[in-house]
Amino acid sequence: MDIVDIARWQFGITTVYHFMMVPLTIGLGTVVATLNIAWVRTRRPEYLRMTKFWGKLFLINFIMGVATGLVQEFQFGMAWSEYSRFVGDVFGAPLAMESLLAFFVESTFLGLWIFGWDRLKPWVHAACLCCAVVASLLSAYFIIVANSWMQHPVGYEIVNGRPVLDDIAAVLTNNTAIVAIIHTLFGSIAVAGSFLLGIAWYKLWQRRRAGIDTVDAQGRVVVGEEPTGARDRTDYRVWWRSLRIGCLIGIVGFLGTAFSGHVQAQLMIHQQPLKMASAEAACHDGTAFSVFTFSIPGARDCNNVHTVIEIPGLLSFLAHDSFHTDVAGINTLVPQYEKEYGTNLAQDAKYGDRAGQEINYVPLMIVTYWGFRIMITFGGLAALACALAWWLTRKGTVPESRWLMRLAVFGILAPFGANVTGWVFTEMGRQPFVVAPNPDLPASQRIHMFTEAAVSPTITPGELLTSLICLCLVYLVLMIVEVWLLAKYVRTGVVAAMPELVRDPEHDDDDADAPTGRRSDDVLAFAY
Asked: DSSP per residue over 111-166, as a string?
């Protein structure tokens, strides 16, 4: 197996796993901060319970996100050192900002929030969480700035054949980054919406199954109470409000990703036309949007592509807001790329055994084409589920159907799938470049880097394969631990975050902290 393929698999697998934590951290963190503010303003007990329960799940995910994210920065030195040398003068700036500003601010204020219950004034305590959430958004923004520079490099000058940062404002305001962070934010909100919806549906279904909540002749909920487990009327309001909030923000998240995705696609058509042509399997210039195309797996040319269903004019509208403007196809674009960047890799030591190989400028179409459609399908299904759930629960509770409950729970995965396939499409579609050329600059000022030149020259396939296997095993363990923790606390419910709801007051002092009189598990300190 080629060393470049192993390195790409390693980076892809670890990054996909880490990226699954990112949208939930951003989306759920925003929800928890909003709930915390709602509790401070209204002092309604359901908001306090919602803050602590969803906050506990947020912290579990946050911890796993930090643990898996640390590996990414090490990979730039281990497997991609040539890439780091080439772009380090530019790429290092946003990464340093992410580490020094966003990460430390995020961790500091999150720690204050975790340990600040009943120790800080309520508004100050809630503000700490808001600062942590804003810092997480900044963290995501700086990472996206770095990635967007690889997609559309700006703000540099060429010194001795390498890009050197000369305009940090241009890098931070890169139009590719601005649209991408908006798209990511709405995608994160969609993830949080499905997360709230699926878990709240399950908890309301449990109350129905246990006979705590019933329905009257008109199908409206009759809220009941159970003397044990804190399954009272407030518990009902916790899950009911969570479900409705989840439905609402899930729909908003999808609409936001749809509109921002449209703008993002138009940028891609201009900046990386082959990526979008590959995503549409558009071999020839035209205006039609391909609804369904099939090809031989692994196809990277138009000989094996067969369009079955297409909609005339739609691709032109998506690209240019016009139904009659042709969009350049693969057969038109490839000769342009070959003329500009060559047909073969240079006879250079940096390419190793790959020197002189023919360059295929067409991304792997089976990945980009179906990745693009799976992303849209999963996002649409999640939004449809939110709308359907809003209608089915309009009378105050969920149906007794076990199958609907399972669909709601498994529906949590849909927006995760949309986020992951969207990332895979973005990265795979940039190939064969690890740094794509910027078509807005004169040819003499453009820089680019082929992926084959980015791999560390001294690393061996055996070393990379060993690290890939070890990382996959470690990440598998981390995934099992996270899912187990989330499932454990979801089954327990609000009591998992607020054990005082079922504690015997006569025994409170047995486990209290002597100086403060507070129990050690009154806060979400398990995260530390």
From this structure: HHHHH-TTTS-HHHHHHHHHHHHHHHHHHHHHHHHHHHHHHS--SEEEETTEEEE-
